[in-house]
């Protein structure tokens, strides 16, 4: 007779919550703070953190616990298996017009985009993208490109929590402004982050759709505002749009 309920290990779920929290924190957190944020008993958090520290996944110091380089093994294993990442890494060789620019590949994770791969160019942008970095989808070019592939009600639900604090004076401030921008993205075929993440930086992003037109990931090209003259912006935006469609899953 089969068990009608799947067997689960609550401690494993809590361990994942702790790892996600530390990844988002970007630094060490103490047991009390983690327990408060996750609504878990301090004894449980301490026990899990100690176990992960013994396994080399976390590092403990006077500030609390933080992630170690051990986590990169999992990231590396995932990236090797991802055909999207492999295809993304081939793009500069396929299209020489991409060579001077920073390129990123990301996917939606709740209200944020998480970066799966990056190729930072030598030209100074004042901002460096990193694998695993998360940014608000409503401010990033790939985030807006992917949200534009969804019905507005679904996109709005994804970002309906606390609106992110503006990064710059040009950051979107409310859902109404987002809805207007998403309509422009749908008409144009690519999204624009014009100084919303970093003043002086322009990003052009397009969604990589699946067979049903839903976003799997997004690719973006970043350049300085001085480089982003209207004709160049339009030409590169169309290029990113065409490359994203060519990577359709």
Element pattern in H and E: HHHEEHHEEEHHHEEEH
Number of helices: 9
The CATH superfamily of the largest domain bears the name GAF domain
CATH class of the largest domain: Alpha Beta
At CATH level 3, the topology of the largest domain is Beta-Lactamase
The biggest beta sheet is recorded as: 6 strands, antiparallel
Shape: globular
Quaternary state reads single chain
Strand content: 15-25%
End-to-end separation in angstroms reads 40 Å
Strand order of the largest sheet: 5-4-3-8-7-6
Structural class: alpha+beta
Question: Could you explain the architecture of this structure?
Answer:
Keywords: DNA-binding, Transcription, Transcription regulation. The chain is an alpha+beta fold. The chain folds into two domains: 10-68, Arc Repressor Mutant, subunit A (Orthogonal Bundle), CATH 1.10.10; 79-246, Beta-Lactamase (2-Layer Sandwich), CATH 3.30.450. The protein contains nine helices and eight strands. It has a six-stranded antiparallel beta sheet with strand order 5-4-3-8-7-6, with helices on both faces. Strands 1-2 form a two-stranded antiparallel ribbon. A hairpin with a 6-residue loop joins strand 6 (191-194) and strand 7.
């Amino acid at each position: 007779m089969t068990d009608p309920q799947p067997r689960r290990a609550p401690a494993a779920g809590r361990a994942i919550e702790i790892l996600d929290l530390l990844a988002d924190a970007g630094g060490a957190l103490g047991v009390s703070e983690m327990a408060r944020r996750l609504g878990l008993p301090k004894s449980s958090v301490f026990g899990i953190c100690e176990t992960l520290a013994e396994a080399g996944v976390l590092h403990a110091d006077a500030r609390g616990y933080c992630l170690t380089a051990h986590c990169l093994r999992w990231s590396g294993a995932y990236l090797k298996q991802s055909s999207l990442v492999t295809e993304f890494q081939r793009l500069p060789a396929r299209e020489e017009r991409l060579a001077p620019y920073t390129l990123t590949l990301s996917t939606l994770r709740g209200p944020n985009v998480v970066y799966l791969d990056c190729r930072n160019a030598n030209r100074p942008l004042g901002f460096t993208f990193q694998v695993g970095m998360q940014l608000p989808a409503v401010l990033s070019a790939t985030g807006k490109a992917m949200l534009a592939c969804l019905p507005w009600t679904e996109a709005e639900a994804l970002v309906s929590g606390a609106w992110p604090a503006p990064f710059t004076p040009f950051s979107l401030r409310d859902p109404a402004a987002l809805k207007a921008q998403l309509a422009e993205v749908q008409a144009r075929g690519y999204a624009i982050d014009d100084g919303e993440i970093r003043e002086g930086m322009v990003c052009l992003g397009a969604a990589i759709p699946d067979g049903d037109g839903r976003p799997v990931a997004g690719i973006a090209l970043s350049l300085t505002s001085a480089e982003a003259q209207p004709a160049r912006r339009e030409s590169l935006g169309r290029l990113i749009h065409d490359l994203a469609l060519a990577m359709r899953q």
